């Protein structure tokens, strides 16, 4: 039971390596089966961890039995368990979709998906700053390879931008980590929280600079203004299951911001307490605004969905900037919703695209789709949810967030922008929906209907949105407890630093 | 020695950033490489500069911090792998787009040909 925490990292590693070893084989059924079983087991592990964490205990796992703060630790608290669960559910359906649609050259796609998962789960679970960097690199390297799966000049161009930007980001990450280490002499996040709180007045500005450098790095990962330009093109160029899986990638940046600036630079950080929140608020609002302008301006459906991802990032960052228990709880509820729905949207757009005569998702009328009713309903539900219409989870998330902002002048900004972004989403998506499903010309398209399996994967991922609304109460109770745990990091710090190793 | 190394890091970072902002993929990759060199040196220096001291406790009078050396090793390996990857990617982009501009635009369509 104690080793369970390491499984979200080890399981995808083993599955991924197994799949990479099988890469040259012709036996595709076995490849798909292993990939799906691996993803299914991961969901089971994530659910188990989620239950463990929901009791409020913080489990610490010292890798190789080296005691913290010197060894590398994995830490399971409510937040990391929640993020691992969100990831594994998304991954399960993306891999399912990939397994049921990709039966040609993309031999390594499944293996790389699992390696990506390993990096993501590692980033959520680790309690060590340098280890966080390594996990980021693991997931980035897998994502580079996933992005250029398949051919096409668009993909090569988008991948080049994405890779170069992220390599520069990694270097900045290293500078920030090294600066923090140089001053505090530790890399363990809990230990660093203690050291940062005791900084003298002369040392504090240097650490503050490093902390803000971290904001640049995590902002790049999260695609916050002004570092979001790579996202729409990269996500639109990626193949559907990869794009769906990438819906979690921006949220890793959001997670890292939440973790870093509550644990290390939170209320108790002495000279540096809450230094990042004043920056976060304008960034969030500008991201939100540019996001919904992009949704309105998008000329392909995938471009619109990509800008919806940016809108969700803006909304999440606003929640983090308010930095109260209620707002953090709302933020993470909204995070689960937006990740799953954006993932589902990428899958649905791909299903639509495959049934179009010209195979593109450009917003122009064409022959009617063979399965217009089914796809229309799916698109309609996803659009309602992502725009924040009742009774689906997007509405619940937005209400919680708007409720949390209070009645100050901040409320004016957030209310107007969040509601405008909802309006923009509903306008843009209803325009594209009516173009694709109603304004048809030239009879029926001569394309194959979608098979049952990919359709089921998209439907499965989409059912999470009514589920999030239906079981809203227990989920919100969990996120409330999570926000409380996040804003009171003493328990986290004590659990890590007082951890005794097995060998004593 | 501190001043010399600081200047070295600063110059390498400046050159790296300048090259990264160029329009063709090859200077960009060279810029990235220079930037990672600067970063590696920076990590190493963060363990404080100390001459003639081994990174092992108990072998002599003084010792130096071994952790940045381990970190630098990891960072070097990762950046080396990434450089190899981005080189292959640049070659592929060159093959698919027909030129080596980062935006994939043909040179003769640009006003400034000296990009």
Description:
The complex is a heterodimer of chains A (504) and B (115). By secondary structure, chain A is mainly α. Helix content of chain A is 72%, strand content 2%. Chain A has a two-stranded antiparallel ribbon with strand order 1-2. The longest helix of chain A is centred in the middle third of the chain and has 32 residues, at 153-184. The two termini of chain A are 19 Å apart. The mean pLDDT of chain A is 90. With 115 residues, chain B is mainly α. Chain B has one domain (2-114): Orthogonal Bundle (Helix Hairpins), CATH 1.10.287. Helices cover 62% and strands 0% of the residues of chain B. Chain B has helices at 2-20, 25-45, 67-97. Chain B is elongated and about 60 Å long. Chain B starts with a helix and ends in an 18-residue tail after the last helix. The model of chain B has no long low-confidence stretch (mean pLDDT 86). At the A-B interface, helix 5 and helix 6 of A face helix 2 and helix 3 of B.
Set down the secondary structure blueprint.
The complex is a heterodimer of chains A (504) and B (115).
Chain A (H helix, E strand, L loop, with lengths): L6 H15 L6 H27 L4 E4 L10 E4 L1 H24 L7 H17 L3 H19 L5 H32 L4 H9 L6 H19 L7 H8 L2 H7 L2 H15 L13 H21 L3 H22 L2 H31 L16 H16 L5 H12 L4 H29 L14 H11 L1 H7 L1 H16 L2 H8 L7
Antiparallel strand pairs in A: 1-2
Chain B lengths: L1 H19 L4 H21 L21 H31 L18
Helix pairs in contact in B: 1-2, 2-3
């Amino acid at each position: 039971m104690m080793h369970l925490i390491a499984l979200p990292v080890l399981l995808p590693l083993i599955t991924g390596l197994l799949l990479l070893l099988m890469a040259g084989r012709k036996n595709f059924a076995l490849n798909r089966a292993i990939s799906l079983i691996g993803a299914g087991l991961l969901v089971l592990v994530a659910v188990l961890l989620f239950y463990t964490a929901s009791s409020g205990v913080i489990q610490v796992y010292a890798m190789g039995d080296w005691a913290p703060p010197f060894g590398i630790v994995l830490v399971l608290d409510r937040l990391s368990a929640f993020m691992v669960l969100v990831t594994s559910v998304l991954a399960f359906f993306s891999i399912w979709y990939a397994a049921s649609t990709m039966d040609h050259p993309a031999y390594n796609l499944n293996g790389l998906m699992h390696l990506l998962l390993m990096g993501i789960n590692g980033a959520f679970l680790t309690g060590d700053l340098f280890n966080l960097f390594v996990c980021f690199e693991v997931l980035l390297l897998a994502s580079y390879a996933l992005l250029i799966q398949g051919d096409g000049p668009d993909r090569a161009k988008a991948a080049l931008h994405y890779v170069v930007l992220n390599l520069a980001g990694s270097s900045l990450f290293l500078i920030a980590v090294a600066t923090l280490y140089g001053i505090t002499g530790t890399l363990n996040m809990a230990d660093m929280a203690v050291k940062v709180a005791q900084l003298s007045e002369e040392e504090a500005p240097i650490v503050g600079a490093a902390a803000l450098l971290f904001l640049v790095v995590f902002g790049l990962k999260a695609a916050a203004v002004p570092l979001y330009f790579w996202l729409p093109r990269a996500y639109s160029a990626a193949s559907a299951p990869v794009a769906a899986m990438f819906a979690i990638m921006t949220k890793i940046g959001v997670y890292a911001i939440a973790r870093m600036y509550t644990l290390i630079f939170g209320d108790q950080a002495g000279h540096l307490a809450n230094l990042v929140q004043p920056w976060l608020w304008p960034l969030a609002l500008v991201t939100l605004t540019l996001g919904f302008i992009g949704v309105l301006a998008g000329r392909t459906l995938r471009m619109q969905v990509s800008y919806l991802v940016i809108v969700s990032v803006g909304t999440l960052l606003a929640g983090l900037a308010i930095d109260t228990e209620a707002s953090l709880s709302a933020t993470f509820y909204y995070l689960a919703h937006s990740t799953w729905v954006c993932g589902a949207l990428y899958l649905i757009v791909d299903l639509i695209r495959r049934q179009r005569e010209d195979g593109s998702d450009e917003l122009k009328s064409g022959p009617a789709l063979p399965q217009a009713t089914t796809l229309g309903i799916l698109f309609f539900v996803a659009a309602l949810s992502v725009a924040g219409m009742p009774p689906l989870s997007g509405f619940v998330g937005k209400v919680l967030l708007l409720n949390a902002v209070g009645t100050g002048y901040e409320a004016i900004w957030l209310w107007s922008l969040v509601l405008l972004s909802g309006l923009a989403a509903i306008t843009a998506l209803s325009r594209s929906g009516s173009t694709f499903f109603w304004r048809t010309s030239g009879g029926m398209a001569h394309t194959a209907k979608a098979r049952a399996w990919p359709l089921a994967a998209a439907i499965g991922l989409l059912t999470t949105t009514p589920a999030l609304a239906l079981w809203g109460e227990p989920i919100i109770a969990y996120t409330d407890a999570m926000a409380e745990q996040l804003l009171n990091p003493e328990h986290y710090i004590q659990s890590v630093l007082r951890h005794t190793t097995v060998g004593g | 020695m501190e001043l010399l190394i600081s200047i070295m890091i600063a110059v390498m970072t400046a050159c790296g950033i300048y090259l990264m902002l160029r329009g063709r993929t090859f200077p960009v990759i060279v810029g990235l490489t220079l930037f990672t060199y600067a970063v590696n040196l920076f990590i190493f220096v963060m363990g404080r500069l100390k001459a003639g001291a081994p990174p092992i406790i108990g072998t002599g009078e003084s010792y130096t911090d071994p952790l940045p050396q381990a970190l630098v090793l990891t960072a070097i390996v990762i950046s080396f792998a990434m450089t190899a990857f981005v080189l292959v990617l640049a070659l592929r982009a060159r093959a698919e787009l027909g030129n080596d501009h980062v935006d994939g635009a043909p040179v003769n369509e640009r006003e400034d040909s000296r990009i």
